[in-house]
From TrEMBL:
InterPro entries: PD-DEXK-like_domain, tRNA_endonuc-like_dom_sf, YhcG_C, YhcG_N. This is PDDEXK nuclease domain-containing protein. It holds the Pfam family YhcG_C. Residues 15-147 form the YhcG N-terminal domain. Signal peptide: none annotated.
Length: 335
Protein backbone atom coordinates (compact mmCIF):
# COMPACT_ATOMS: atom_id res chain seq x y z
CA UNK A 1 0.00 0.00 0.00
CA UNK A 2 1.40 3.36 -1.06
CA UNK A 3 1.27 6.16 1.48
CA UNK A 4 0.24 9.58 0.25
CA UNK A 5 3.13 11.81 1.30
CA UNK A 6 1.01 14.88 2.14
CA UNK A 7 -1.49 12.80 4.06
CA UNK A 8 1.31 11.13 6.00
CA UNK A 9 2.89 14.47 6.89
CA UNK A 10 -0.47 15.74 8.12
CA UNK A 11 -0.77 12.68 10.36
CA UNK A 12 2.74 13.27 11.74
CA UNK A 13 1.90 16.90 12.51
CA UNK A 14 -1.33 15.88 14.23
CA UNK A 15 0.49 13.37 16.43
CA UNK A 16 3.22 15.91 17.24
CA UNK A 17 0.57 18.39 18.36
CA UNK A 18 -1.03 15.73 20.55
CA UNK A 19 2.33 14.95 22.16
CA UNK A 20 3.12 18.63 22.77
CA UNK A 21 -0.34 19.21 24.20
CA UNK A 22 0.05 16.28 26.59
CA UNK A 23 3.53 17.44 27.62
CA UNK A 24 2.22 20.93 28.35
CA UNK A 25 -0.72 19.60 30.38
CA UNK A 26 1.64 17.35 32.32
CA UNK A 27 3.98 20.25 33.08
CA UNK A 28 1.08 22.43 34.21
CA UNK A 29 -0.24 19.61 36.38
CA UNK A 30 3.16 19.02 38.01
CA UNK A 31 3.58 22.74 38.69
CA UNK A 32 0.10 22.97 40.20
CA UNK A 33 0.79 20.02 42.51
CA UNK A 34 4.10 21.56 43.59
CA UNK A 35 2.52 24.94 44.34
CA UNK A 36 -0.27 23.32 46.35
CA UNK A 37 2.29 21.21 48.25
CA UNK A 38 4.25 24.34 49.19
CA UNK A 39 1.00 26.09 50.12
CA UNK A 40 -0.07 23.28 52.43
CA UNK A 41 3.36 23.09 54.04
CA UNK A 42 3.18 26.85 54.57
CA UNK A 43 -0.19 26.51 56.31
CA UNK A 44 1.21 23.83 58.66
CA UNK A 45 4.21 26.02 59.50
CA UNK A 46 1.94 28.99 60.23
CA UNK A 47 -0.22 26.88 62.54
CA UNK A 48 2.89 26.27 64.68
CA UNK A 49 4.63 29.65 64.25
CA UNK A 50 4.58 30.16 68.03
CA UNK A 51 7.30 27.50 68.23
CA UNK A 52 9.82 30.11 67.02
CA UNK A 53 12.50 30.26 64.32
CA UNK A 54 14.19 27.06 65.50
CA UNK A 55 11.09 25.19 64.36
CA UNK A 56 11.76 26.05 60.70
CA UNK A 57 15.48 25.35 61.06
CA UNK A 58 14.81 21.93 62.59
CA UNK A 59 12.14 21.20 59.99
CA UNK A 60 14.54 21.97 57.13
CA UNK A 61 17.17 19.68 58.67
CA UNK A 62 14.76 16.79 59.24
CA UNK A 63 13.33 17.02 55.71
CA UNK A 64 16.87 16.97 54.32
CA UNK A 65 17.60 13.80 56.33
CA UNK A 66 14.34 12.11 55.32
CA UNK A 67 14.61 13.08 51.64
CA UNK A 68 18.34 13.32 50.82
CA UNK A 69 19.03 15.02 47.52
CA UNK A 70 15.60 16.62 47.36
CA UNK A 71 15.76 20.35 46.72
CA UNK A 72 13.26 23.06 47.65
CA UNK A 73 13.13 22.68 51.42
CA UNK A 74 15.80 25.08 52.59
CA UNK A 75 15.14 27.39 55.55
CA UNK A 76 14.70 30.27 53.13
CA UNK A 77 12.20 28.41 50.95
CA UNK A 78 10.22 27.14 53.94
CA UNK A 79 9.88 30.75 55.07
CA UNK A 80 8.59 31.61 51.58
CA UNK A 81 6.02 28.82 51.90
CA UNK A 82 4.81 30.24 55.20
CA UNK A 83 4.59 33.73 53.72
CA UNK A 84 2.81 32.39 50.63
CA UNK A 85 0.14 30.68 52.74
CA UNK A 86 -0.27 33.71 55.01
CA UNK A 87 -0.58 36.19 52.13
CA UNK A 88 -3.10 34.06 50.19
CA UNK A 89 -5.68 32.70 52.66
CA UNK A 90 -8.06 31.89 49.77
CA UNK A 91 -7.04 28.38 48.70
CA UNK A 92 -9.28 28.57 45.62
CA UNK A 93 -7.27 31.56 44.38
CA UNK A 94 -4.04 29.64 44.83
CA UNK A 95 -5.41 26.62 42.94
CA UNK A 96 -6.81 28.58 40.00
CA UNK A 97 -4.44 31.56 39.73
CA UNK A 98 -1.15 31.29 41.64
CA UNK A 99 -0.63 27.66 40.63
CA UNK A 100 -0.54 28.69 36.96
CA UNK A 101 2.97 30.15 37.28
CA UNK A 102 6.26 28.69 38.61
CA UNK A 103 7.23 28.92 42.26
CA UNK A 104 10.13 31.30 41.57
CA UNK A 105 7.70 33.72 39.89
CA UNK A 106 5.35 33.54 42.88
CA UNK A 107 8.23 34.32 45.23
CA UNK A 108 9.28 37.32 43.11
CA UNK A 109 5.74 38.70 43.20
CA UNK A 110 5.53 38.13 46.96
CA UNK A 111 8.78 40.06 47.46
CA UNK A 112 8.19 42.96 45.10
CA UNK A 113 4.41 43.53 45.03
CA UNK A 114 2.42 44.26 48.17
CA UNK A 115 -1.17 44.84 47.00
CA UNK A 116 -3.29 41.79 46.25
CA UNK A 117 -4.91 43.25 43.11
CA UNK A 118 -1.48 44.07 41.66
CA UNK A 119 -0.21 40.60 42.49
CA UNK A 120 -3.12 39.00 40.69
CA UNK A 121 -2.55 41.28 37.68
CA UNK A 122 1.13 40.31 37.40
CA UNK A 123 0.29 36.61 37.77
CA UNK A 124 -2.26 36.79 34.95
CA UNK A 125 0.09 38.81 32.73
CA UNK A 126 2.83 36.25 33.33
CA UNK A 127 0.46 33.52 32.14
CA UNK A 128 -0.61 35.54 29.09
CA UNK A 129 2.89 36.50 27.99
CA UNK A 130 5.00 33.58 29.19
CA UNK A 131 7.44 35.86 31.01
CA UNK A 132 10.65 34.37 32.34
CA UNK A 133 11.65 35.11 35.94
CA UNK A 134 14.02 37.89 34.82
CA UNK A 135 11.46 39.49 32.52
CA UNK A 136 8.80 39.41 35.25
CA UNK A 137 11.13 41.18 37.69
CA UNK A 138 11.95 43.81 35.07
CA UNK A 139 8.27 44.43 34.36
CA UNK A 140 7.54 44.88 38.07
CA UNK A 141 10.53 47.17 38.65
CA UNK A 142 9.61 49.29 35.61
CA UNK A 143 6.14 49.85 37.09
CA UNK A 144 4.23 48.09 34.32
CA UNK A 145 1.02 47.87 36.39
CA UNK A 146 0.96 51.63 36.95
CA UNK A 147 1.86 52.36 33.33
CA UNK A 148 -0.58 49.94 31.71
CA UNK A 149 -3.40 49.07 34.11
CA UNK A 150 -4.05 52.33 35.98
CA UNK A 151 -2.47 55.11 33.88
CA UNK A 152 -4.66 57.90 32.50
CA UNK A 153 -4.32 57.02 28.82
CA UNK A 154 -5.00 59.61 26.14
CA UNK A 155 -6.53 58.12 22.98
CA UNK A 156 -9.64 58.15 20.79
CA UNK A 157 -9.70 54.35 20.46
CA UNK A 158 -13.10 53.93 22.09
CA UNK A 159 -14.78 56.31 19.63
CA UNK A 160 -12.87 55.23 16.51
CA UNK A 161 -12.68 51.45 16.91
CA UNK A 162 -15.35 48.81 17.31
CA UNK A 163 -15.31 46.46 20.29
CA UNK A 164 -13.40 44.36 21.18
CA UNK A 165 -10.50 45.98 19.26
CA UNK A 166 -11.04 49.29 21.07
CA UNK A 167 -10.73 47.69 24.51
CA UNK A 168 -7.67 45.67 23.47
CA UNK A 169 -6.00 48.75 21.98
CA UNK A 170 -6.52 50.68 25.23
CA UNK A 171 -5.18 47.75 27.27
CA UNK A 172 -2.12 47.53 25.01
CA UNK A 173 -1.18 51.19 25.58
CA UNK A 174 1.24 52.28 28.30
CA UNK A 175 2.05 55.70 29.71
CA UNK A 176 4.90 56.30 29.98
CA UNK A 177 6.89 53.86 27.87
CA UNK A 178 10.26 53.08 29.47
CA UNK A 179 13.10 52.84 26.96
CA UNK A 180 15.68 52.11 29.64
CA UNK A 181 18.02 50.35 27.23
CA UNK A 182 18.87 53.58 25.35
CA UNK A 183 22.03 55.45 26.46
CA UNK A 184 20.84 58.87 27.61
CA UNK A 185 22.19 62.01 25.91
CA UNK A 186 20.97 65.55 26.50
CA UNK A 187 21.00 66.55 22.82
CA UNK A 188 19.18 63.52 21.38
CA UNK A 189 16.92 64.14 18.37
CA UNK A 190 14.14 61.94 17.01
CA UNK A 191 16.45 60.05 14.64
CA UNK A 192 18.91 59.27 17.47
CA UNK A 193 16.15 57.70 19.56
CA UNK A 194 14.72 55.86 16.57
CA UNK A 195 18.10 54.36 15.65
CA UNK A 196 18.73 53.32 19.25
CA UNK A 197 15.33 51.63 19.44
CA UNK A 198 15.91 49.76 16.19
CA UNK A 199 19.40 48.71 17.30
CA UNK A 200 17.83 46.96 20.30
CA UNK A 201 14.55 46.08 18.62
CA UNK A 202 14.11 42.91 20.69
CA UNK A 203 14.06 45.00 23.86
CA UNK A 204 11.73 47.47 22.15
CA UNK A 205 9.31 44.61 21.42
CA UNK A 206 9.44 43.60 25.08
CA UNK A 207 8.45 47.11 26.16
CA UNK A 208 5.70 47.47 23.55
CA UNK A 209 4.11 44.23 24.72
CA UNK A 210 2.92 40.93 23.34
CA UNK A 211 1.97 40.53 19.69
CA UNK A 212 4.13 43.23 18.09
CA UNK A 213 6.13 42.41 14.95
CA UNK A 214 8.63 44.99 13.69
CA UNK A 215 8.31 45.85 10.00
CA UNK A 216 10.78 48.70 9.66
CA UNK A 217 11.91 52.20 10.54
CA UNK A 218 11.75 55.16 8.18
CA UNK A 219 9.23 53.00 6.32
CA UNK A 220 8.62 54.55 2.91
CA UNK A 221 5.12 55.18 1.61
CA UNK A 222 4.62 56.57 -1.88
CA UNK A 223 1.47 58.68 -2.14
CA UNK A 224 0.71 60.32 -5.48
CA UNK A 225 4.36 60.23 -6.50
CA UNK A 226 5.62 61.76 -3.24
CA UNK A 227 7.55 59.78 -0.64
CA UNK A 228 6.67 59.89 3.06
CA UNK A 229 8.55 58.12 5.84
CA UNK A 230 7.05 56.57 8.97
CA UNK A 231 9.34 56.52 12.02
CA UNK A 232 8.42 52.97 13.12
CA UNK A 233 5.95 50.52 11.59
CA UNK A 234 4.67 47.39 13.33
CA UNK A 235 1.97 44.79 12.89
CA UNK A 236 0.18 43.62 16.03
CA UNK A 237 -0.90 39.99 15.84
CA UNK A 238 -3.41 40.34 18.68
CA UNK A 239 -5.05 43.48 17.32
CA UNK A 240 -4.70 42.23 13.74
CA UNK A 241 -3.71 45.65 12.47
CA UNK A 242 -0.78 47.85 11.49
CA UNK A 243 0.60 50.13 14.20
CA UNK A 244 2.31 53.39 13.24
CA UNK A 245 4.59 54.96 15.86
CA UNK A 246 5.92 58.51 15.59
CA UNK A 247 8.64 59.77 17.95
CA UNK A 248 8.95 63.35 19.19
CA UNK A 249 11.72 64.61 21.48
CA UNK A 250 9.72 67.59 22.72
CA UNK A 251 6.29 68.28 24.16
CA UNK A 252 3.19 67.12 22.28
CA UNK A 253 1.81 69.60 19.74
CA UNK A 254 -1.64 69.35 18.07
CA UNK A 255 -0.14 69.32 14.57
CA UNK A 256 1.54 65.98 15.35
CA UNK A 257 -1.90 64.34 15.37
CA UNK A 258 -2.70 65.65 11.89
CA UNK A 259 0.51 64.20 10.47
CA UNK A 260 -0.16 60.82 12.11
CA UNK A 261 -3.75 60.86 10.81
CA UNK A 262 -2.37 61.20 7.27
CA UNK A 263 0.09 58.34 7.77
CA UNK A 264 -2.69 56.07 9.02
CA UNK A 265 -4.85 56.91 6.00
CA UNK A 266 -1.93 56.04 3.73
CA UNK A 267 -1.21 52.75 5.52
CA UNK A 268 -4.88 51.78 5.34
CA UNK A 269 -4.96 52.61 1.65
CA UNK A 270 -1.66 50.99 0.64
CA UNK A 271 -0.84 48.18 3.09
CA UNK A 272 -4.03 47.17 4.86
CA UNK A 273 -5.69 43.96 3.63
CA UNK A 274 -9.40 43.23 3.75
CA UNK A 275 -8.98 40.91 6.73
CA UNK A 276 -6.99 43.49 8.73
CA UNK A 277 -8.55 45.77 11.31
CA UNK A 278 -8.12 49.56 10.95
CA UNK A 279 -4.56 50.70 11.55
CA UNK A 280 -3.83 52.55 14.77
CA UNK A 281 -1.25 55.18 15.62
CA UNK A 282 0.81 56.08 18.66
CA UNK A 283 2.58 59.37 19.25
CA UNK A 284 5.45 59.05 21.71
CA UNK A 285 6.47 62.42 23.11
CA UNK A 286 8.90 63.51 25.80
CA UNK A 287 6.02 65.26 27.58
CA UNK A 288 2.38 66.19 27.00
CA UNK A 289 -0.44 68.33 28.31
CA UNK A 290 -3.27 65.83 28.68
CA UNK A 291 -6.04 68.33 27.93
CA UNK A 292 -4.29 69.60 24.80
CA UNK A 293 -3.78 66.01 23.63
CA UNK A 294 -7.43 65.12 24.28
CA UNK A 295 -8.67 68.07 22.20
CA UNK A 296 -6.18 67.29 19.42
CA UNK A 297 -7.42 63.70 19.09
CA UNK A 298 -11.11 64.44 19.57
CA UNK A 299 -11.96 65.09 15.92
CA UNK A 300 -9.25 63.02 14.25
CA UNK A 301 -10.79 60.40 11.96
CA UNK A 302 -8.17 57.73 12.62
CA UNK A 303 -7.62 55.82 15.89
CA UNK A 304 -4.56 57.06 17.77
CA UNK A 305 -3.10 57.59 21.21
CA UNK A 306 -0.51 59.83 22.83
CA UNK A 307 1.97 58.64 25.46
CA UNK A 308 5.15 59.90 27.05
CA UNK A 309 8.43 58.00 27.15
CA UNK A 310 11.46 57.92 29.43
CA UNK A 311 15.00 56.74 28.78
CA UNK A 312 16.45 57.09 32.27
CA UNK A 313 16.79 53.56 33.63
CA UNK A 314 19.03 50.61 32.75
CA UNK A 315 17.88 47.21 31.51
CA UNK A 316 19.57 44.16 33.10
CA UNK A 317 21.87 42.48 30.60
CA UNK A 318 20.59 39.02 31.47
CA UNK A 319 17.20 39.91 29.94
CA UNK A 320 18.53 39.81 26.39
CA UNK A 321 18.92 36.01 26.35
CA UNK A 322 15.39 35.63 27.77
CA UNK A 323 13.73 37.40 24.82
CA UNK A 324 12.45 35.83 21.59
CA UNK A 325 14.33 36.54 18.39
CA UNK A 326 12.96 39.22 16.10
CA UNK A 327 12.84 36.70 13.27
CA UNK A 328 10.59 34.37 15.29
CA UNK A 329 8.16 37.16 16.08
CA UNK A 330 8.11 38.62 12.58
CA UNK A 331 7.59 35.20 10.97
CA UNK A 332 4.21 34.89 12.69
CA UNK A 333 2.77 37.71 10.60
CA UNK A 334 3.29 35.63 7.45
CA UNK A 335 1.13 32.77 8.71
Amino acid sequence: MLINNNEYLDIVETIKLEIKSAQYKAAVSVNRELIMLYYNIGKIINEHKTWGNKFIENLAADIRISFPGTKGYSIRNLKYMAKFAAEYPDEQFVQTVSAQIPWSHNCAILDKVKEFSKREWYIRKTCENGWSHSVLIHQIESGLYERQATAEKISNFESRLAAPQSELAVQTMKDPYVFDFIPFKEDMVERDIEEALVKDVTKLLLELGTGFAFLGNQYRLNVGGDDFYIDLLFYNLNLRCYVVIELKTGEFKPEFAGQLNFYLSAVDGILKRDEDNPSIGLLLCKSKNNLVAEYALKDMSKPMGVSEYTITKSLPKELEKQLPSVENIESRIKK
